[in-house]
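User: Some background: our group keeps a shared notebook of sequences we're curious about, and every so often someone picks one and asks for a predicted structure to add to the entry. Today it's my turn. The entry only has the sequence so far, pasted here. Could you supply the structure so I can complete it?
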Amino acid sequence: MGWTMPWVTITDSFDADFGVDEWHGTNAFIRDGDRVFRTYFVDNRGDEAMGGTWAYLDITALGRQETWEDSPEGYPQTPPYEWWNWHDEYPAGRVSR
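Assistant: Of course. Here's the predicted structure to add to the notebook entry:
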């Protein structure tokens, strides 16, 4: 779909830098210009329910970006589930961002 995402894994020092020693952690971040804020963190026994797309979207600072959510000016919002298209179901020339 043309998305680029920097992934960080247990092969680097990212977890240790954020205080996760033996197990793992789930983080959510938001960037505002050059500033990055960690908006969510859970480790050890706190993330058993994580795994589905909705659970991960719901821990992000801006959520699913649906019309019922409060969002800063300039962030696009859509009616619930409108943005949920399979990778091959977008109209020609339209890319959701």
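Suggested note for the entry: The beta strands are 25-32, 35-43. The mean pLDDT is 76.
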